[in-house]
Amino acid sequence: MSQWESWSAFWDMGGAAFFVWGSYGVTFALIALELALVFQRRKDTVRRLLRWRRAVGKDSSKRTGDGFAPAMESEQ
Length: 76
Prior knowledge:
The protein has two helices and no strands. The protein has helices at residues 7-12, 17-64.
């Protein structure tokens, strides 16, 4: 606190508090939004992969009868 006379002067930021603290607020909000979207995309991707794995497993066992499920469609 050597630069500032008091806590109120620190929070006021020499008259630029709206811009300084607003910038921190917007940055925090965007980082929180990005994290929420990443976790949502991960959850959706895991769900789709599990659904795909079940579908491929059922299809391959019906076709070949040996229970082998190819890792990718190009391997069929």
